Automatic annotation (TrEMBL):
Gene3D superfamilies (alphabetical): 3.30.450.40, Histidine kinase-like ATPase, C-terminal domain, PAS domain, PPM-type phosphatase domain
Membrane topology, from the record: Multi-pass membrane protein
InterPro entries: Bact_Sigma-Reg (IPR052016), GAF (IPR003018), GAF-like_dom_sf (IPR029016), HATPase_C_sf (IPR036890), HATPase_dom (IPR003594), PAS-like_dom_sf (IPR035965), PPM-type-like_dom_sf (IPR036457), PPM-type_phosphatase-like_dom (IPR001932)
PANTHER family documented for this protein: STAGE II SPORULATION PROTEIN E, STAGE II SPORULATION PROTEIN E-RELATED
Name listed for the protein in its UniProt record: SpoIIE family protein phosphatase
TM regions (residue ranges): 62-84, 219-240
Key words, A-Z: ATP-binding, Cell membrane, Hydrolase, Kinase, Membrane, Nucleotide-binding, Phosphoprotein, Transferase, Transmembrane, Transmembrane helix, Two-component regulatory system
Source domain of life: Bacteria
Residues annotated as domain GAF: 395-555
Location within or outside the cell: Cell membrane
Domain PPM-type phosphatase: 573-793
SMART domains: GAF, PP2C_SIG
Any one Pfam family match given in the protein's UniProt record, by short name: SpoIIE
């Protein structure tokens, strides 16, 4: 087992008895415990111990170094002071002895003792000597110890304090005593007469205070030097501790020990090999797993990696120190994934660390995992790529594109014809190939569009019958499949196709068709897992195919309804030359409509409307509105009144459907209604939330008519306003829905400008105008329906209009009949004269009898012969059946029998009774 350097012992965290060692408390908990113990114990030893047991090793080293330096400095200062004091005392003893012997041996000292007043002689000499020798006293005594001299005169004549007996016997004494002037060091020497006899004693001394003065003067210097030394030592210790703090990351001894133990345990317990290589290519460390994976010798640490007998490529990789990520190396019979990184990042030591992972077993699993991942990816892509449109054939083609070549080499999709039409499938009917594709273009399989009826023995028939997928692993050993078409089957096998999976397209309990997956490139046949994948793939596609089928059915129904509601042909009329276009929206049928409605008096109504939304509801609502406009127009109402009635009807529709709860209200409907009179060439129009019409003059100038914009239908409460335009003959009136000028990518102002440009460059006829407008929008596929109606105006010539003022006198009826007969003869309509005279006689007679003046008669020759009688009365005549005994009441009955159409319309000055006769 490999150990970290300096590590000994086992790594187990259990005690011999099996009990797990209690984990050490955290740093915060330990700090609280230390603080509590410090407060409980108190005193500087405890505080010092607490400091020494600080959190980090750096702090402990710092405190210990500071304490040691402090103790050394204090010891040095004390020793220096003691030495100085000792040296000062020795110097005081030597000086005192020298001064005492010099004074005792000085000439005249011994003779002065025999003088009558020795003090008078010796005192000045002693003081002079004392001052010159820098001692504190020079005392001369007799043999009895009585002083002759003293620095303090009042002490002369008194007993000497000190030991004089040895001096009386001729010996010298140096001693420390407490004298009269304090603690002192003194030397006592004998004073001899010329004959050698001791006649007195000379003592000289220095007080201890003066003897230690040198030490006291040197003490500040010593203490200053000690403080400086302490400061320098502390600063140096702080620098060392700071570096130690960085290197130990602020950890304490216990934490470092635990970290070492944990790292060691993790290093050797991990299931990956770990190798640390130095910058010289030597192996610094290898854990147990690395030893096992690389079969390293026991003494591998410290040796060069290239000398360990490893595979050359592996050894070169580990010795190079370059970055490696999951590089696979074959070492023995193992496949090792090697990851290597340098260790000198962020200031670390030079070298590299590599991890080794045994991927031998994972390599086999990764292959199966990769296959599973690819299959999941295929299903995911099928969910995104199949069913992007609501078209059955397109959905089948998308399934082929997803499956080839990721799952099969060739794929065919066969569906019932009814499914392609959006209807319910007939299980007994044949299938039609809706889509096919493969890795090669030309195949011997049935082409797209072929109607196929599978024989009962084929796997396809079995799959349709059982509603379960069928696997045919070897087609050459499948006689049931070959029985479908032996010649084609032989060509298929020669082509290389050898395996088949047939999966029914199921939507609930309904089978919509069949999907065949064919394999040719791979030698292995389809297996059971691929059969399950094919079933899942087709199941996801079946939902989209069924949705497309249902949409096809609903769309077909809506288109049929819409086509039945839109005009199939334009009525015959002579006032306008009309062309139209209708483009359904990309999303399906909508609620746009248009109409051309012939009115009385050769007038023509143009209407364009739009119901917001798409689908059956919008188409049905459009049909109801179009029918209402037809009915209201038969009343010959002005445009504003007609839109008012239409608005009330939409409001009633909303109320009825909201109360019923079975339908949705009309969320928005707009309409533009215009009436053109070819006699006056005037056009009256009103609009309810609809875009304004465009007018192209005979000179090609394009303007948008300023028609007041009323609210959309169904809002109610606001009246509609009309605008009246006088149009020159040959002008083109362009009506359209908002799908032409507005979509999500542009606003209506930009659309109107584009429309203006298209109209300005269009040809002169309505057909050319429609073509130019739609060509400017190609290849645009509208998101909303587009209805476009272009009408070029015609004027009814004056010679085709005849008018007469009629007096309110019954006798004037004969004059009217004669004038009309002459005009009809001029027009070449002599055969219609008799009928026309009867109709006008009845209408004029009614106007004279029941109406009021002025009375006017107008006859128009257009596609039909139109007779009109104007009067200022608002009383409307009505048709009734007269009894056999009635003398009157049969006039309007005769008119109704003789005319093709008749009716009444109201004007601002009265009413008009009209009747039409066909000229064909």
């Amino acid at each position: 087992m490999v150990r970290l350097p300096g590590r000994a012992g086992t790594r187990s965290t259990r005690r011999p008895g099996g009990r797990r060692v209690q984990p050490a408390p955290g740093p915060a908990r330990r700090a609280r415990e230390r603080a509590a113990r410090s407060r409980a114990a108190g005193g500087w030893p405890t505080r010092l111990w607490a400091a020494l047991r600080g959190r980090s090793v750096a702090r402990q080293v710092f405190v210990l170094q500071v304490v040691v330096v402090l103790l050394l400095v204090v010891a040095a200062v004390v020793a220096l002071v003691l030495q100085v004091r000792r040296d000062s005392t020795g110097e005081a003893r030597s000086r005192s002895l020298a001064v005492a012997e010099a004074f005792a041996n000085a000439p005249g000292t011994a003779a002065a003792l025999a003088a009558p007043d020795p003090t008078a002689v010796l005192q000045p000499r002693a003081e002079a000597t004392r001052k010159a020798a820098h001692v504190d006293f020079v005392v001369v005594t007799d043999t009895a110890g009585i002083r002759y001299t003293h620095p303090e005169p009042n002490r002369i004549g008194k007993k000497f304090v000190g030991t004089i007996e040895p001096a009386l016997h001729g010996r010298t004494v140096v001693e420390e005593i407490n004298g009269t002037i304090g603690r002192l060091v003194q030397a006592v020497v004998p004073l001899r007469a010329p004959d050698g006899r001791v006649v007195g004693v000379v003592a000289s001394g220095i007080t201890t205070r003066n003897a230690g003065g040198l030490a006291d003067r040197q003490l500040p210097v010593v203490l200053g030097a000690a403080a400086a030394a302490l400061a320098l030592a502390t600063a140096g210790t702080a620098l060392v501790s700071r570096r130690l703090l960085r290197q130990t990351h602020g950890l304490g001894p216990g934490e470092m020990t635990r970290m070492y133990d944990h790292h060691d345990a993790v290093l050797h317990a991990v299931r990956e090999g770990v190798i640390i290589v130095g910058d010289e290519g030597e192996l610094l460390l290898a854990n147990d797993e690395a030893h096992r994976l690389l079969d390293l010798p026991a003494d591998a640490e410290g040796r060069r990696v290239l000398d360990l007998g490893l595979d050359p490529e592996t050894a070169a990789l580990l010795a190079s120190g370059r970055i490696a990520t999951d590089e696979v190396r074959l070492v023995g019979d193992r496949l090792l994934a090697v990851n290597q990184r340098p260790t000198d990042l962020d200031g670390g030591p030079s070298g590299s660390v590599a991890t080794l992972r045994d991927s031998t077993e994972l390599r086999a699993l990764s292959g199966r995992a990769e296959v599973a991942r690819e299959r999941l990816s295929l299903l995911y892509d099928a969910g995104l790529g199949v069913g992007t449109t609501l078209d059955v054939t397109r959905t089948a083609e998308e399934l082929v594109r997803v499956a080839v070549p990721r799952f099969a080499d060739f794929v065919t999709v066969d569906l019932y014809d009814a499914v392609l039409r959006g209807e319910e499938p007939d299980p007994g009917a044949g299938l039609r190939r809706a889509a096919a594709g493969g890795i090669r273009a030309r195949t011997p399989l049935y082409p797209v569009g072929t109607r196929i009826r599978f024989v009962a023995s084929s796997p396809q028939a079995d799959s349709l019958r059982t509603r379960r997928p069928v696997l045919e692993p070897r087609l050459e050993a499948a006689p049931g499949w070959q029985a479908q078409d032996e010649e084609r089957a032989a060509r298929v096998m020669r082509y290389g196709i050898h395996s088949l999976i047939a999966v029914p397209v199921r939507a609930g309990a309904v089978v919509l068709g069949l999907v065949d997956f064919w394999r040719s490139e791979k030698d292995e046949p389809f297996d059971a897992e691929e059969l399950a994948l094919a079933e899942e793939l087709v199941a996801r596609a079946a939902v989209s195919i069924d949705n497309a089928r249902r949409y096809t059915r609903e769309h077909g129904m809506a288109v049929t309804l819409q086509r039945s509601l839109l005009p199939r042909s334009l009525p015959e009329q002579g006032a306008l030359e009309v062309a139209y276009r209708y483009l359904p929206a990309q999303a399906g049928v909508g609620g746009d409509w248009f109409d051309v409605l012939p009115l009385s008096g050769a007038r023509v109504a143009l209407v364009v409307g739009d119901v917001v939304g798409h689908g059956l509801h919008a188409a049905a609502t459009m049909g109801r509105l179009r029918t209402a406009v037809h009915n209201f127009s038969a009343l010959d109402l002005p445009p504003d009144e007609l839109l008012g009635l239409l608005d009330e009807m939409v409001d009633r529709i909303d109320q009825d459907e909201s109360a019923d709860g079975a339908g949705a209200p009309v969320i928005g409907a707009t309409c533009l209604y215009a009436i053109y009179d070819p006699v006056s060439r005037r056009c009256v129009m009103a609009r309810a939330g609809h875009p304004p019409p465009a007018v192209i003059g005979p000179d090609g100038e394009v303007v948008f008519a300023e028609v007041p914009a009323g609210p959309p239908l169904g809002l109610g409460g606001l009246p509609f306003e009309t605008a009246e335009l006088e149009l020159a003959e040959g002008s083109r009136l362009v009506l359209y829905t908002d799908g032409l000028v507005e979509d999500r990518e542009r606003d209506i102002d930009a659309g109107l400008e584009e429309l203006r440009a298209a109209l300005a460059s269009a040809g002169g006829s309505p057909e050319e105008t429609c073509r130019a407008v739609l060509d400017s929008r190609l290849p645009f596929r509208p998101g909303d329906d587009i209805a476009l109606l272009v009408a070029r105006t015609r004027a009814l010539d004056a010679d085709r209009v005849a008018e007469w003022e009629v007096p309110a006198d019954p006798a004037a009826v004969a004059d009217v009949r004669a004038a009309v007969s002459r005009r009809l003869a001029r027009w070449g309509l002599d055969e219609a004269a008799f009928t026309t005279e009867l109709i006008l006689s009845e209408l004029v007679t009614n106007a004279i009898r029941y109406g009021s003046a002025p009375i006017r008669v107008r006859v128009l020759r257009d596609t039909a012969l139109i007779c009109e009688v104007f009067d200022s009365s608002n009383t409307s005549p009505h048709l009734r059946y007269a009894a056999s005994t009635d003398e009157g009441g049969r006039g309007l009955f005769l008119v109704a029998q003789l005319a093709d159409r008749w009716g009444t319309r109201y004007t601002s000055t009265g009413k008009v009774i009209w009747a039409e006769q066909s000229l064909s």
